[in-house]
């Protein structure tokens, strides 16, 4: 049965099918490009006689040595745009290499299969062998250790990987990949639009690190990026990769008419989705239904199976959380035509090839126009018409879009943003870059952008600057990459069938709390499992197969608690704040709902540990007098939505990178508040940046809401598709009244000055000692001190017995003393203690852990602990996390060293040679003084690192 008959069937439901339109198709446009005979023959074997115009254009640009961005629509054959010229290069130069980067493992598997089919037709051989050559291999987290070693030792022409493995497995160990990297001609970034927001910031830095490593090996590859249709393709992809691109945007692929239906429900949107899906499959139409959650995906699959209205046609659910083998099996059956319908989360939005589909059903607006077109682009991939149906959910945003369907279809695809220089993320990757290949002044990948961040990294002891000031080395952990996760990766729980003992699926920690609590019904491909036990210790969920007439949903709440204020200021009658907060999400119980109708059966309490993470937030404290205004909560909520919507215009990020909450009364501040927080543990600098720009954001929010022609609020101003409260309450009028009053007295901040603001560095602390920045005592008023001992550590039973080593001699130096140096023997302890108590500051080297511990038996503990002491070694250790001797620091910084060592000093004491002993101790005091003075005068001291003399910033 064809698609037109199904559309006529839908049209009969005229109270539901409120808007029907079509996107007209167009004829194919072909391009003329000469191909290598072997490739031409291989394409012909797949039924391809001519290339489309965009494919020909991309091939010509790549042959011309350009980096190319291909942003034609879904299913337009973008893969051939890069596979053909890359294979041509490999045929002419068998040593040539290419790196293909995919956002998901499933995409790499899918593309490897397609590439192998093409390469098989080329019949490439390994020299001296009759076996077909494996031109491409996957190197990712699923590649076993044996295969990894094999690939590293003998890399294929093409390696397929993902940004995570590139970051953790290739770049830190680039020496093992030198042969591959030195011959790399192409880097392909597929599905580039996936890398936006915070993930995009990470990936942009990984790509820059890759470019640096490649330059180290003399390689200068072309970059090829493929992306969905974007509003700003060149700008986005150039910021992502850091190189200029030539864009290919006009597609020659033939588009056949795509019919669009906007569906308004009169009952349950979920029931309508199941009905439309079942009817479509029953009519022999290959159908995909996109749902917005795993639970809804499984529920609809269950209803479809219960209804048994699809006849003999096989259907399946598809989502993350299935085991990898199960997902591959479903993909294979979809591609082979064995499955006629699939209900999926966004997991099938990207380009895994699942064959030719006729109908796409969207259960709810997916949240962006880009996702809308990506999903409906899944259908119509053959020479026949197709259908896309968008079913409106009951919440206000979906209902508004259905009521304004014609305007909806005129909306532009969104521009997406990526910020390679997000302060916190950029710093972390700079340290990684320094660990891979030392950074140099004028670095091609970073330029002047890196200098402020490097200054901060040097202050933190994570990066060391060369004495010449032109090179920087990693000074922290050997592999800082291991401390950076590109994505928010939770621990995985295994879901185990108690009947068989087999793992049937997985779930991240954040999902386990909401889907796998004890008593939950876990749905897996239309089968029901009752969760018996949630084992936090072993990361297991034990569930038993059941047949029940209900499903479950969590009940919970979210709270924000203020831990500390880092910044606060008054503006426009508001208190603007930035600080550290704890976001708490608590599952308090669950509800049982009737399986077919969703009718509430019962509620049950749970005693679950909360999910908490500490992050950074900005918040507005609003005077309590406003709380008496009518619709005040709705006004606050509307402003929160507007601020979050505008956030990416002022802070380069994605909407999903931040969270928000508004409350008429916050328990921590005692005021009405609007919070916006970084949605990543620890924070990634987004809220901090916005704190410096909040005046401009609030002004723009007022213009944004006031400029919308709607009466009561709409998706174009204050409704948010991600709102956890279903966009209730909202008051456009109250939001405008509040913002108008606030913004009249706000200063407008210069965006340029905001962008170039200096990075603030927290003062370095040293145990109980005051911060050095706060001391700044003139050097002539500082007492510099050192002592020698009568016995060695070995003689007293180890370093834990320093109090038994006894002082042989001490030397102190102070510029304000007439004699400059004073010498103390054991019998002069009282005189020594008097001088120490009188000092404004005592500076020594290892004075806290050694000198004062040796003196402890001679003095009152309270006297010792109250001394104003600064320990150079302690400061060095806190920055570098390793000890460096006074001799090493003095030689590198002052080009002079110690005249002997501590054991020689003990020998002199035993021999009664006090002249040499005092001379030696005095020389150490002079080194300590001169080292401190050098650091005070220059802002750094020096040490040897990797055969280089490098600087350690100090603020003495």
Structure description:
By secondary structure, this protein is α/β, with parallel strands linked by helices. The protein has 5 domains: 3-23 and 255-409, P-loop containing nucleotide triphosphate hydrolases (Rossmann fold, 3-Layer(aba) Sandwich), CATH 3.40.50; 30-248, P-loop containing nucleotide triphosphate hydrolases (Rossmann fold), CATH 3.40.50; 423-483; 549-755, no CATH class; 772-953, Nucleotidyltransferase, domain 5 (2-Layer Sandwich), CATH 3.30.420.10. 35% of the residues lie in helices and 23% in strands. It contains 31 helices and 37 strands. A 7-stranded mixed sheet has the order 1-11-16-15-12-14-13, sandwiched between helices. A 7-stranded parallel sheet has the order 6-7-5-8-9-4-10, with helices on both faces. A hairpin with a 2-residue loop joins strand 22 (521-524) and strand 23. Helix 22 crosses helix 23. Residues 126-130 and 750-774 have low confidence and may be disordered.
Outline: globular
Low-confidence sequence ranges: 126-130, 750-774
How far apart lie the N and C ends?
Answer: 82 Å
CATH superfamily of the largest domain: P-loop containing nucleotide triphosphate hydrolases
Q: The CATH topology of the largest domain is what? A: Rossmann fold
Beta-strand residue fraction: 15-25%
Give the overall pLDDT as a whole number: 89
Extended strand count: 37
Q: Output the structural class.
A: alpha/beta
> Biggest sheet, open or closed, and with what strands and sense?
7 strands, mixed
- Helicity range: 25-40%
Specify the CATH class of the largest domain. Alpha Beta
User: Which CATH-level-2 architecture of the largest domain?
Assistant: 3-Layer(aba) Sandwich
Count of the separate structural domains? 5
Biggest sheet: strand arrangement: 1-11-16-15-12-14-13
Radius of gyration: 34 Å
DSSP summary: helix tally:
31
